[in-house]
Each structure stands twice: as C-alpha cells, then as structure tokens.
C-alpha cells in the first residue's frame, strides 16, 4: 500500500476507461506530476510547469494524519476541480465497511465485498470500476459518516480512514488494473459530486481538510486507533464524565421560571452536574419555534430574564446550560425577509423548509451573534451551550469560486465562531447537536466537549445507535438520553439507563411523577454510571455483537464490552425475540458490580468486571 494523492485541473484530459462522470482520478493532471522528494513529514510532487503538490503526513501513535497542499508557482491561475486529502494505491482488500446514517438512525455498519460492489477487474484490466460515495451539504453526517474501512479477509487486517470535514465530502474506491488491488481516495466533494471548483492564483496555495488513517488486526482495533487520534476541545469543567439533565422531554419546549425552578428543586442533591434549558425560552406565544434568529427572551415565560433562571439552577449545585440554533433564521424572525446578511444561492436567499441561514462570513453577522449568543451566555452566567443545527444548505451556495466552494467557506466560518465562543467564554462546555447526529464528524467534534448522539430519545433502538458511535467518536463525548416516564416498568428503566453506559448519561422526562421506587432505580443507575465512568472515558471497545437489522422493530440482542487495562464494562440489551439467558463474559473475569436485570425482551443488564 502506497500513500500519494490525486487531483484534476479544469481543462486537462480526463482519465480513460469509461470513467468520465464516474471518477475524476487518473486524469492527465495527476499523470503530469513526478515525485521529487520524500521525508518523514511529506511527499513532494511537481509537474515541471510551476505546480507543486505536497502530501503532509504526521504519525500520531497508531494513526497517520495526512493532508494535501497544492501550490501554484506558475504565471497563470489554475482551477482545481478535484484535490484529494489522500490517496492509497495498491490496497489489498476484498471488503469495505461504511457507517450509514440518517436522522435518528446514526452509524449503522454496512459491510460489502468487492463482488457486491462489482469492483472486480475486467478480463483485460481495461475499464475503471469505481464506487464513489459521500455527503453533499452542510450536515457532514447524512447518509454516511466520513469513514471507510477496508478489510483483507484472508488476514483480517483492516485499514480505516476518517475525513475531518465540516461539509460536502467524498470517498472513492476504484479498481483499474488486473491485479485486483484497490485505489482509495478521499477529501472534499469534487466538481462532479459536490459542484466544487477552486481557482488558485499565481503565488497562492490551497490546502485540503485532514484525513486520519489507521490500521489494525481487526475492525475494532482500527476504529479504536482512529478515535484515539481525535483531539476534542473538552472543557476542564467537563473532564470527569458528569451527568446531565435536559428539560426538553420534561417541558416539551415550554420552559418557564416556575417549572425550571421546580425541576431544579427536584434534582437538587442528586449529583447532576449540568442542567440544560432547551428550546422555547425565546420568541412569543405559540410561534416561538419560528422565531429562531432573533434570540429575544420570552418575558412571559421568564419575566426576570435568563439570569434569574440560571442563578437558581446554580444555587441548586448545577451548571446552567442554554440552547441556541445560532446559524439559522426562522420565518417569524425580523431578519427573515431582509436578504442583506443571509446565505444566498443563485442570488436569492436560500430557503430550506422553514429556515434560512446566516452568512457566517459576514462581519455583521459575527458581531450580531457575538451580542446575541456570546453576550447572553455571559450575562446569564451560563457555563454550557447546546448548539443545534436543523437543516442543510444542500449542494452549495454563493460566495465562493463555485457553489461547492461557497458552501465550504460558510461552514468554515461557522467553525470559526465555535472557536470564538470558546475564546470569549473560557471553560464553557459546548454540545454539538444537529437534529441529533448530523454533525458527528471529527472536524466538529474537535470543537466541542460533547455531542447529541441522536434524536432517538425514547425509542428502543437507542442502545443500538449509541453502540454504533463507538466506531466514530469518543464515548466520553457521546451524550445518550435516558427519558424516564411514570409508566415505565423496572425493565424499561433499566433498559433506558443502561443505554447511557455507552456514552455520557443525560436524563430527562417525568421527574416529578416518578415514584420513590422509580427514583431508586434511577439513582442506582447513576451510581453505576459513576463507577463505570473511567472505563467509558478511557477504555477501548473490544466487542460489539449486534443482531438487529431493523431499528424500528429490533430483534435479538446486543452485547458491548469496553475495557481499560484489567477492568471491563459489559452492557447487554435484549430486544424482541431475544435469546434466553445471559451472555458469556470474558473467561475468568470477576464481576464486581451489576445493574439491571436482563430477564425478558426489552430489558437490560450491565456488569463491571475485573480480568485475572
């Protein structure tokens, strides 16, 4: 396997083999470059016409971080229509893994062989076979995660890759030659896939997003190494796996001073670190959901403003948090019909469903959001920010060298605002939410402490989704909700609470109506979570057995083992038509704590164990 890169310039000859429109690899552009140097940190290529490519590489323990820089030292501007972050040639693999993702169904593992994908070479070696996939839009985790793994089934060896992208991206697996070895490329979505071109003037350069490549003896090890290479900006306030409460599934978008105080009173002394006020604190009347963008406090609900509510939460020993959808503008906002500062496509404001989008490159917008978001967080004394993002800008927008380039620029500006928040409010804990998991890409996860794992807050597939994400993000960042209801049986409470052991515990629901017995179960689950926290935070997932195919009607069971040195956490969920009995834990281990009872369908049990 050889590391290199790929690119294509507008005007150059496309590759042969019936690939035009299927792939931009193998063009005259890349064939015109020759390697002129290599060292531990880079590969350097030139084409003899003043153009240079540098593949930067940095070894980080068991992973390799790579990115490509294109430099124009010629006397003329050139236009890129594809520039890969990386390329791997001569990959020996006969199966690929992808992580599929839709709303409330994030991270489903999909394995296909080269035969399934029709990637066998032709009888003569002529004709390109290519599988190009990715995501188009400003939600980088939609249909797929920016992830790919390739397996050699003869040895079990796996090469896995993650792209650090915030918007449209692509991966491509191709086979051109009779050897059957594969070429893999990945990076920004190109002109064909994402309407992206970028003009580079003489003396200028352009650098791609980063990719991380890791190899392992199996998929578990390769994914663990990818995730270990992520460097999230976890606040020092949030470095010990504290428990959260979010009031959304308690008030259903109707927070007010009275019910927030009542919730805080009920939670006092239960060891909950964060209390997050979700949507509904702004706007007026029943149309508050449509007024995102104004961020005026609803004085009927909060007559004393946000500060009074936040101070009360702090007085009960919890860090107050607040929800914003800061990049969007709703139809009842006073800014909705003023196109001056909105994202445009084809010269008119881009409207998706009931939302328009702030142009985050616009200095006026940055100043406005600095006042409305950062200013209100500071004034209210909030230590936690939940950032939601509930629509995608799609193919692209105005403001760049192409629609796709415009999109990348707008999203990069949003990411800079995340950084600005951290700079202006040191220690703030930021949660990345995008209708659940649409922004669970490393590029966004490195800007935040936590993320909403999904919007699947009360359905039975919660533990399935939560376990899926171990392959893509750190569990210490993956916020799993346990929504507690008065009608919940003991088995259902165990089921919901055990799912949070696959990430960060967040509670919501009918906390006022729960019986003392139900609260006893909840507090038992919280105590068990605290005992397991170090394993969740620092451990490695060594087993993920998941039988269900349907997420709406899961059948069978799921077992997840996560280990840290000689300590282990086992989380077992039973679904419909599940096998009787309990799963086998690692041979010779000693169980030191147990939570729940997996004695029927839709029940759960967890164990802490020590290995001999």
TrEMBL record:
It holds the Pfam family Melibiase. One of its GO terms (biological process) is carbohydrate catabolic process. It comes from the Bacteria. GO terms for molecular function: alpha-galactosidase activity. InterPro entries: Aldolase_TIM (IPR013785), Alpga-gal_N_sf (IPR038417), GH (IPR017853), Glyco_hydro_36 (IPR002252). This is Alpha-galactosidase. It comes from Candidatus Acutalibacter ornithocaccae. The lineage of its organism: Bacteria, Bacillati, Bacillota, Clostridia, Eubacteriales.
